[in-house]
């Protein structure tokens, strides 16, 4: 019987490879956009849809992943997801015009959106509760290292070759896990339930999450006064409210929001949202500071952030093991203390702040985040009964997308507002316009980091309430796990 209870590492490795390619691809085009604009003769607002459209498809499909994971086997979902991703990559690589490139990018996203929830759900089903920290730590490593490599590799390739090479590199890497999935992947899920899909819930979810993601992600470039921003956010909020009430009334909801009756899951969601907002402050504001104020190239800007991401990737398995041994609270409190301290240091940037000083602070900050993100999320998921895993993972992934967009837009707006008011004051006092603009932007960035420090402090205070989930659902979960292990290789 020991053989049947051993986690299927080979199967998980195939899923990991697919997830790595999908996440790696998400940030690959950020630095390549200027070259694409020139090659395909489009403006910045049009080219930005390659990033915005990818994010929108993720935001729309991730909530539906809970239904798909319960309805279909992990093997079927993986093969369809990687097939869509590979097909989209091929379209993008050979795209003669921008519209084909955008279609390819969104087809890519439709496959990538299913990979994260699928992998998290399989990890929860495959590993017993006392070993999940280590498993989710490995998952966190993929989640962090892949998007960190993307911009750095993209900058090198675009500077040396064509942007199309980016997709030609990704395509064979995507085909490997697809072929492995077709010939080697076995089913880990047993529940393949005959669920009915509520079409109205799917429409409301798409309008809600899609509207909020588009509105907030467009606010920085279009401005809050633009109808495309405030109307889409309004439609998103209203749709989400109706969606929420509908889910609470349905017997088979698209997203089971009743998981929030579990206090540790609810607390982990709140901490993850506040931490995501604080984390995005550095990811968005630091390149502005480095490139605009310090005059450093985009590639060097990407290299500055690379050590922090690599440290976070290396630390993820370590913090996973520590989580299994000591629990989330022991890691979250010092980790969030580091995040608060380093964010405060970023709120005091000056014209003289050195490149390596910034790199050191950013790396230390990412070290702190590595102690918090996956342990807190895993602690919350551990309190859920097994039948709620697809819903818990879908909610967590959706909230990360939404909170990232909201946090970015909120902090950039604060920066712009403070920059404009400071520039007017400096120019009125006789400071030359160019010098006033740079000084005002620096003040705006520092102000946004100050607000981000307060957000991180809120997460730190919430961490005092973290508890290790009790074993109230332990007996039920054990029976369900035994069924999983016995039927794992049934297909």
UniProtKB/TrEMBL annotation:
Pfam families from the UniProt entry: MFS_1
Keywords per UniProt: Cell membrane, Membrane, Transmembrane, Transmembrane helix, Transport
Top-level taxon: Bacteria
CDD domains, sorted: MFS_LmrB_MDR_like
Membrane topology reported for the UniProt record: Multi-pass membrane protein
Residues annotated as domain Major facilitator superfamily (MFS) profile: 11-471
GO CC annotations on file: plasma membrane
Entry protein name: MFS transporter
Naturally occurring in which organism (per UniProt): Planococcus plakortidis
């Amino acid at each position: 019987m020991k053989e049947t209870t051993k986690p299927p590492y080979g199967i998980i490795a195939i899923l990991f490879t697919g997830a790595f390619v999908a996440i790696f691809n998400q940030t690959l085009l950020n630095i390549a956009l200027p070259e694409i604009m020139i090659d395909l003769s489009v403006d910045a607002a049009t080219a930005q849809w390659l990033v915005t459209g990818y994010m929108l498809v993720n935001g729309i499909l991730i909530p539906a992943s809970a239904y798909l994971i319960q309805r279909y086997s992990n093997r079927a979902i993986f093969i369809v997801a990687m097939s869509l991703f590979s097909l989209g990559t091929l379209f993008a690589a050979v795209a003669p015009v921008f519209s084909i490139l955008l279609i390819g990018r969104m087809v890519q996203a439709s496959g990538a959106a299913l990979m994260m929830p699928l992998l998290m759900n399989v990890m929860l089903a495959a590993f017993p509760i006392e070993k999940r920290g280590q498993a989710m730590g490995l998952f966190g490593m993929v989640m962090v290292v892949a998007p960190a490599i993307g911009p750095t590799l993209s900058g090198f390739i675009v500077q040396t070759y064509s942007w199309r090479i980016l997709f030609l590199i990704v395509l064979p890497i995507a085909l490997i896990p697809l072929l492995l999935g077709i010939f080697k992947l076995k089913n880990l899920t047993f529940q393949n339930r005959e669920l009915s899909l509520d079409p109205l819930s799917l429409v409301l979810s798409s309008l809600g999450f899609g509207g909020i993601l588009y509105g907030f992600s467009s606010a920085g470039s279009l401005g809050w006064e633009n109808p495309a921003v405030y109307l889409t956010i309004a439609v998103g909020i209203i749709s989400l409210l109706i969606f929420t009430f509908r889910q609470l009334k349905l017997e088979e909801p698209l997203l089971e929001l009743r998981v929030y009756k579990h206090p540790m899951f609810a607390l982990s969601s709140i901490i993850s949202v506040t931490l995501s907002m604080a984390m995005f402050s550095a990811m968005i504001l630091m390149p502005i500071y480095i490139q605009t104020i310090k005059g450093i190239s985009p590639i060097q800007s990407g290299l500055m952030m690379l050590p922090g991401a690599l440290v976070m990737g290396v630390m993820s398995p370590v913090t996973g093991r520590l989580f299994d041994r000591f629990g989330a609270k022991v890691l979250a409190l010092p980790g969030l203390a580091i995040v608060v301290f380093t964010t405060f240091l970023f709120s005091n940037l000056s014209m003289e702040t050195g490149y390596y000083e910034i790199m050191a602070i950013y790396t230390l900050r990412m070290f702190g985040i590595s102690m918090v993100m996956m342990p807190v999320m895993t602690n919350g998921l551990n309190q859920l009964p097994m039948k709620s895993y697809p819903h818990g993972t879908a909610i967590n992934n959706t909230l990360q997308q939404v909170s990232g967009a909201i946090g970015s837009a909120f902090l950039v707006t604060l920066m712009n507002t403070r920059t404009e008011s400071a520039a007017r004051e400096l120019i009125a006092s006789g400071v030359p316009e160019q010098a006033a603009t740079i000084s005002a932007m620096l003040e705006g960035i520092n102000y946004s980091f100050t607000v981000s420090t307060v957000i991180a402090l809120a997460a730190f205070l919430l961490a005092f309430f973290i508890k290790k989930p009790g074993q109230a659902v332990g007996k039920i979960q054990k029976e369900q796990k035994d069924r999983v292990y016995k039927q794992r290789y049934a297909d």
